[in-house]
UniProtKB/TrEMBL annotation:
This is Acyltransferase. Keywords: Acyltransferase, Membrane, Transferase, Transmembrane, Transmembrane helix. GO terms for biological process: polysaccharide biosynthetic process. It comes from the Bacteria. Signal peptide: none annotated.
């Protein structure tokens, strides 16, 4: 992957994280309905689908180029998730206790589920909080749902990539049954990222005109889909009649699959157009900003909720700005020092400090 494409993917990851924040900031209880159009378009859900496609791409890349064994892959994925998830669960619980004491009315169902800390940590660090039969919200942190999906996709991908023979088939089937239908319904978007990486890795080259078409047409189709409420049409009229409540965050699975395809085609076109393009001027600032994306996604909602509970008189700009400031501060403490956390984990296991790369 060339540097320009890496910069573009980082930018896309950052924008997706900010759109998720904006979609929650747009709740009328925070902003008096001024940003309600963001909620009505359901942009936050679409941004998570973008995350899934990017995740499938990056996981395929690291498995092929860096994590050459199942053990290395498992350590890399677990350390990446837990280094941010554990402090997010702990801080989220503290913020929820504080905010609920300040403004109990802000912490009501469905925006808050007062689970005890031990249960939040158990469900959160096992990443089973949305698996079949176990679905629940962890405190106020609604966005945590997608980590349950991500962890399942990592595990299923690892089985398919690193294992072979009957064992692979048995474990794939067992894993699919374990995680449940909701997780599997959104997996096509994640697998689209895998497909895009493999196309690029195999040296697939598009003609320039085709690349422009691939890069631009999905964006136009997406805007048209929103204009004519295609996600709602698909959900209400073409999907099998399953309970939206039972499907939880997978209730737009046809639209999510279609959107994942559009994102994948877009990335193929952009990858071709960026060949030979110099984006060195943007590489470092974009990488630094995107380096907080996971933290922005995972801690913004408890921060937003607690800040509003403590200071309901804050201006909209003040609430949004303080929430983002808290997210970047959190990232500085927990997300950016990933290499250090990995080194400490290895030192704990092996009884000595070990160099860690990547």
């Amino acid at each position: 992957m060339n540097a320009a494409l890496s910069t573009y993917l980082n930018l896309l990851r950052l924008v997706a994280a900010l759109v998720v924040v904006l979609s929650h900031f747009a709740y009328p209880r925070f902003t008096d309905g001024d940003w309600l159009w963001v909620r009505e378009l359901n942009l936050g859900s679409d941004a998570v689908v973008v995350f899934f496609v990017l995740s499938g791409f990056v996981i395929s890349l690291t498995a092929a180029q860096k994590d050459h064994t199942l053990g290395a892959f498992a350590f890399a994925r677990a350390s990446r998730l837990i280094s941010v998830a554990l402090p997010a669960l702990l801080l989220g619980w503290v913020l929820d206790q504080w905010g609920a004491a300040k403004a109990p009315g802000d912490y009501a169902v469905p925006f808050y589920n007062p689970l005890p800390l031990w249960e939040q940590v158990l469900r959160g660090l096992s990443f089973t909080n949305e698996w079949g039969g176990l679905a629940t919200r962890l405190g106020s942190n609604g966005p945590y749902w997608s980590l349950s999906y991500e962890a399942a996709y990592y595990a299923l991908f690892a089985v398919g990539f690193y294992l072979s023979g009957p064992r692979r088939g048995v474990l794939l089937l067992s894993g699919a049954l374990l995680v449940g239908i909701n997780i599997l319904l959104l997996m096509p978007a994640w697998l689209m990222g895998v497909w895009v990486y493999r196309r690029l890795a195999h040296g697939h080259v598009l003609r320039d005109a085709t690349a422009v078409l691939f890069a631009v047409l999905p964006v136009l189709l997406y805007l048209l889909a929103l204009r004519f409420a295609l996600p709602e049409v698909l959900r209400l009229h073409l999907q099998p009649h399953l309970s939206a409540h039972a499907l939880r965050y997978s209730d737009e699975y046809l639209w999510n699959a279609l959107l994942g395809g559009m994102v994948g085609i877009h990335l193929l076109g952009v990858a071709q157009l960026l060949r030979g393009i110099d984006l060195d001027w943007a590489e470092r600032p974009v990488a630094w900003l995107a380096g907080a994306s996971f933290s922005i996604y995972l801690i913004h909602y408890p921060l937003l909720q607690a800040l509003h509970a403590a200071r309901p008189d804050l201006s909209h700009a003040g609430l949004f700005g303080l929430t983002l400031f808290g997210c970047f501060a959190f990232a500085q403490l927990f997300e950016r020092p990933l290499a250090l956390w990995r080194r400490l984990a290895l030192a704990t296991v092996h009884g000595r400090a070990a160099p860690v790369t990547g």
